[in-house]
Amino acid sequence: MADVAERAGVSTSTVSRTLRGLSTVSPEVRARVERAARELDFAISRQAASLVTGKTGTVAVLVCTLNSWFMGSALSALGPMLRAADLELNLYVVPDLDERASFFKRLPARRNADALLVFSFDLTDEETARLDDLGMPVIYVSQHVDGRPSVYVDDVAGALNGTRHLLNLGHRRIAFLQAVGSSGFSFSSSERLLGYQQALTEAGLPLDEDLVVATPFPDKHGTAKALGKLLSLREPPTAVFAEHDEAAVAAIRVLRAAQIGVPEQMSVLGFDDHPVADLFDLSTVAQSPSDIGREAGELALRLINDPDADHARHIVLPSHVIPRATTAPLFQAQNRGQEQAGSP
Amino acid sequence: MADVAERAGVSTSTVSRTLRGLSTVSPEVRARVERAARELDFAISRQAASLVTGKTGTVAVLVCTLNSWFMGSALSALGPMLRAADLELNLYVVPDLDERASFFKRLPARRNADALLVFSFDLTDEETARLDDLGMPVIYVSQHVDGRPSVYVDDVAGALNGTRHLLNLGHRRIAFLQAVGSSGFSFSSSERLLGYQQALTEAGLPLDEDLVVATPFPDKHGTAKALGKLLSLREPPTAVFAEHDEAAVAAIRVLRAAQIGVPEQMSVLGFDDHPVADLFDLSTVAQSPSDIGREAGELALRLINDPDADHARHIVLPSHVIPRATTAPLFQAQNRGQEQAGSP
DNA sequence: GACCTGCGTGACAGCGCTTTCAGAAAAGGG
DNA sequence: CCCTTTTCTGAAAGCGCTGTCACGCAGGTC
Predict the structure, then answer these.
(1) Which GO terms describe its molecular function (chains A, B) (predicted)?
(2) Which of A17, A141, B224, B291 has the greatest count of CB atoms below 10 A from its CB?
């Protein structure tokens, strides 16, 4: 910066002011400084600036994996959003419980970011408390934590609408397929189950526990077992609502392998609108991870710039049903099922 | 840090030395300092440290998107690797040409990182030159740039082996399906084509230009058109080698919709071992993005710590053929094809 | 012409660390 | 027991910026 100042024949103060687009710098001097900076390929050192401003110009993002469609889409939207606000994006990938423990013990983001976005973690109270005294706004994404800023889709409403779609098609025996992940990360399982139950209750149908089955995920054998339970009921379901699309696809593969036509004999509905949904023509309840990412970024900006902002604000995003080829009316489905039984 | 020093009854110099595990600090003092630091939840400010050391403790990563299996896997491996080396990961998501231009103009990573990893970009010479005077090691990942450190899988060898697999199954008319992306990002298309051609030449087969077709991707209609060309040849192929799995899956869907059995009448081979490959039982040439991510991270570490290291080093990773259910011997395939023609 | 106002600029302190240097204390050697 | 060596610790400078403050200078007012 001293070099730029010398070359432009001004003081470093003026260079600093110019480069930050600040207050009053005479147009002539401004031009000189900008030219000098360009010629020297000068870029400000955030480190030095942050030392005195106290702002790091960085947003930290905590994720358990990037290896998922959801994270990829959300961050692909978040990244450019932050760039536009001239913020750096600092990524913490915490894949397993060991790393997680060490992250929460050391909190490496402390003092090195202006805000933290926590994606899709099922946090313990202790962990939440730990983040509370991190000294920066913490935004919970794709999850809601009481009293803390959160951004998420309304899973209850989504599952409610999805179930209604099946009900409207005439289905009365509707199963719910839960996907139990391996690590302690929440994928809003219970909320979706709740929405499913609400829809049934609303329709005056009983909640049959036999219709709610769980499968470890990913695990094809587990899916087969879970579906086996359903298919061996006295009154088997005519539709399956899977907690997420990947489980739904696993179910479709099991059903088709067993010569059970989808949707002729069994409607299958997913959740998420994951790319595989399109590949399998899967009807599903769509959510938009890129909207979530963007909203989370904007909330972060607001909280950084205005510390008095409402720190308990929740942003709830909508979802919507996308009917494709794996859900069909019950009556027609049964007819078709009998005519073409056995053919995929 | 002053607080810690006071609480431990030592100078800030000693605190600094202790916290960095440096040189000789007496065990007793060390214990006192560590306790004080723990009690005050003290975390070092990287900004302040970097100001004097000149090291930022950060690795910048440039990607065009995260919304792909490859990036997700690579970064999911890279992240923990860098964490283990106590480095931050600074992510730059540059999705379109505008952002790309602005990135290369401003080079925001300058002075704010110790190394830059560039993922899967098809860079112009100008852009490469721009990165050269960034003043930090730049590592090219999933691409190779002459004279610069690069990490990538051997696409030529992979495609060679994949084609050999088809040849070994008896196929002689083997098509190659190119997937032309929209934006200027390379997915090693030409290398894979080259491997395919090498294998044919090696087997003494002519290179029939009609057998190489391109499809815009993603675009189902385009795939149908490309396959149409192949199927209307005087001597249509009995196998299709797709540049990547997603194109292969698109091809399978088109073929099956047209009642052409895969693999009975047409073998299909993909490339990448993308998750959809497993879902469609697609034979493919596997690469390991997590290995790429890890190797890239390790190379970055080496270049940061040892500036004299070989800056032109290329790390080439292997790929291997995974036969699944979409490739079958030619002879048997034709028999089966005739017996069951028309059934999927 | 003395006074005020306000704009544009430079000098300088200081952000929180690291690092050199020097000095105190302990250890060893004659 | 004195002197050298080694081991440990503190004082202080300075990294590259920002922000405060003071100053010079034009233009306006009485």
Answers:
(1) DNA-binding transcription factor activity; transcription cis-regulatory region binding
(2) A141
Q: CATH number of the domain at B178, please.
A: 3.40.50.2300
Q: Could you tell me the distance in Å between the CA of residue A161 and the C1' of nucleotide C1?
A: 84
User: Where does the pLDDT of residue A217 fall: very low under 50, low under 70, confident under 90, or very high at 90 and above?
Assistant: confident
Pick from A51, A91, A107: CB nearest B89: A91
Sole residue written with tokens 């023509």: A281
Q: How many Å apart are CA B276 and CA B279, to the nearest integer?
A: 5
Give residue A132's identity as a one-letter amino acid code: D
Q: Spell out the residues 6+ positions from residue B236 whose beta carbon is closer than 8 angstroms to its own.
A: B173, B230
What is the reported pLDDT for A337? 43
DSSP A101-152: HHHHHH-TTTTT-SEEEEES----HHHHHHHHTTSS-EEEESS--TTS-EEE
What is the greatest pairwise CA distance in chain A?
A: 89
| DSSP secondary structure of A22-82 | -S---HHHHHHHHHHHHHTT----HHHHHHHHS---EEEEEES-S-SHHHHHHHHHHHHHH
Q: Does one domain contain both A222 and A284?
A: yes
* Rounded CA–C1' distance between B309 and C19, in angstroms: 26
- Domain membership of residue A344 (yes or no) is no
* Count of residues in chain B: 344
Q: Residue B67 and residue A80: Cβ atoms within 8 Å? A: no
Domain co-membership, B117 together with B171: no
What is the count of structural domains for chain B? 3
Q: For the residues A147-158, what does the mean pLDDT come to?
A: 95
Residue A71 Cα, gap to closest chain B Cα (Å):
8
Nucleotide nearest B111 (Cα, C1'): D16
Please indicate, yes or no, whether residues B60 and B140 belong to a single structural domain of this protein. yes
B222 and B181 in a single domain? The answer is yes
How many residues in total does chain A contain? 344
Residue B162 shares a structural domain with residue B256: yes
Nearest protein residue to nucleotide C16 (CA to C1' distance) is B48
CA distances from A322 to A11, A139, B5, B18, B208 (A): 61, 29, 61, 59, 44
The residue with tokens 């840090």 is: B1
Rounded CA separation A325/B2 (Å): 66
What gap in Å lies between CA B122 and CA A264, rounded to an integer? 47
CB A88 within 8 A of CB B93: no
Nucleic strand C near CB of residue B23 (< 7 Å) = no
Is B177 strand, coil or helix? strand
Q: B70 in a domain, yes or no? A: yes
Strand D nucleotides, any atom under 7 Å to a protein CB: 7-12, 14-20
Each residue of B24-33: pLDDT tens digit? 788 899 999 9
A133 pLDDT band, cuts 50/70/90, is confident
The string of DSSP letters for B181-250 reads -SSS---SHHHHHHHHHHHHHHTT----GGGEEEEESS-HHHHHHHHHHHHTSSS--SEEEESSHHHHHH
In a domain, residue B344? The reply is no
DSSP class of residue B169 equals T
Sign (positive or negative) of CA dihedral B328, B330, B333, B335: negative
pLDDT attached to residue A307: 74
Q: Which domain holds residue B21?
A: 2-44
Examine residue B279 and state whether it is found in any structural domain, yes or no: yes
Q: Is B80's CB within 8 Å of A95's CB? A: yes
Same domain, A146 and A180: no
Q: Do A183 and A84 fall into the same domain?
A: no
Q: Identify, with chain letter, the residue nearest to nucleotide D18 (CA–C1').
A: A52
Q: Which tokens belong to A264?
A: 């002729």
- According to the model, what pLDDT value does residue A182 have? 58
Residues 35-74 of A with CB under 7 A from strand C: 51-52
